[in-house]
Amino acid sequence: MAFSLxxxxxSGVPYYKQIVDYIIYSVxxxxxxxxxxxxxxxxxxxxxxxxxxTIVKAYSELEHKSIVHxxxxxxxxxxxxQPDIDNSEKKNKLHDLCSLFLDEISSFGISARxxxxxxxxxxxxxxxxxxxxxxxx
Amino acid sequence: MAFSLxxxxxSGVPYYKQIVDYIIYSVxxxxxxxxxxxxxxxxxxxxxxxxxxTIVKAYSELEHKSIVHxxxxxxxxxxxxQPDIDNSEKKNKLHDLCSLFLDEISSFGISARxxxxxxxxxxxxxxxxxxxxxxxx
Amino acid sequence: MAFSLxxxxxSGVPYYKQIVDYIIYSVxxxxxxxxxxxxxxxxxxxxxxxxxxTIVKAYSELEHKSIVHxxxxxxxxxxxxQPDIDNSEKKNKLHDLCSLFLDEISSFGISARxxxxxxxxxxxxxxxxxxxxxxxx
Amino acid sequence: MAFSLxxxxxSGVPYYKQIVDYIIYSVxxxxxxxxxxxxxxxxxxxxxxxxxxTIVKAYSELEHKSIVHxxxxxxxxxxxxQPDIDNSEKKNKLHDLCSLFLDEISSFGISARxxxxxxxxxxxxxxxxxxxxxxxx
DNA sequence: GTGGTCTAGACCACA
DNA sequence: GTGGTCTAGACCACG
Lengths: 137, 137, 137, 137
Description:
Strand order of the largest sheet of chain A: 1-2
Order of helices and strands of chain A: HHHEEHH
Radius of gyration of chain A: 17 Å
Largest interface: C-D, 33 and 34 residues
CATH topology of the largest domain in chain A: Arc Repressor Mutant, subunit A
Oligomer: homotetramer
Largest sheet of chain A: 2 strands, antiparallel
Mean pLDDT of chain A: 87
CATH architecture of the largest domain in chain A: Orthogonal Bundle
Strand content of chain A: 5-15%
Number of domains of chain A: 2
CATH class of the largest domain in chain A: Mainly Alpha
Distance between the termini of chain A: 14 Å
């Protein structure tokens, strides 16, 4: 079945990046599983109503990141082994990013409470977008 | 006087936006005070080693946001009345920062749920630090 | 009997070429002997879990190179006379392998000069090993 | 000045890859130096007589490999810090690749001497190609 | 002027 | 049918 993704043409985020982000998000959250076949480039182009090359670019990006694996003539698949940062390193990275984020917002006079609220709002919006999408076209 | 600003050429954030952000940040934090004169576009272009048009674009943005005020032939000044940095501008910045943060963590294979957990943990730790004395940042 | 061949889906080398190379390799090294019957295309397709057409293409290539010989309704056999594997075929293979090798080292930031030096060093070591007895690989 | 590169349309190697390979080769061999500006995508497209998008693809590949660095509106530059594998690791990698290469050729009944000859021939051809090119168009 | 993105449409290699 | 490459040409953001 097609993706539940609707491209946002007014956000300024390039289509190809929205597709990349959506697939990464889906892999992280177990919506797409290792080995699973992605839609063909042509099919997804039709579904999302964008040019074929835009999908090609998105899939290429994902291949560069080792998130998907392409076999010519066969299709594109979620990679069996996801490039997982080893656990302790991941935890460090997470801590650093979060710490940096809190520093940044505080330098703009924004409270942590406000930031958490905004984060939850954005996450919620993204989920809603994904649920909503797919019924168009 | 020159700014203490170093442009980051590898972050992907456009120069003009880095300049805008820096000046807003400085106003919020009292580093630049209402009525204070900003460097001329030419001077700042030389200091930051960027194209003149880049500074022009940054100053225009700031003028558009009513954060600075340009007097023909005299220069550019921080506006006497900072209308709503606390409202619309801060909210925009907050949204941008949060969105960027979510992008970043997802590119490291970290889920939003994990990040929120870590943020809350860090916030909690900081609070505890403050109560205990907070001298060791 | 089935081949001891595992197709590598991540190498970028097309399946049909991997099969061709494997059979040529087997003929050169006496694993497959002149007149010996190859698996049917159907059987090999099942064994290697690839599309039937992939085997057809591989066998065609081999037939074109006069390495195998197909008898309608009977099967495919290693040709009785291996005409010039030692000449044109070997030369092609040599060129391919060398070209691939140079690509690989350059993608690791290694210059051709360095590689040639290392090759000569290894060759020299192997010769010395052989003279001393050669029992340790 | 333009590159001394002539695209080979009959080799089967995609244009964009020939360009990537050429630039990597040039960086490794000090022909292009860190910080040096590459031709604009439009200029190179004219010089090599290929479509602009082909150059864009080549430069993108190089950016993915962290070999070049792009600043929108300014141009594309050889990265200041080349992604250098640390020295001991590089040496190990080199040894492994060479060893593997020698094993491979010997399994095809090719002698090391033949391989070295072919390698030198290919290297020589590549150099000649680069020298020859650029005078056309 | 510089790169970034997108469209429309074509031809080729592989399964 | 599947992805890979390439062309021609357009519009946008940045410097």
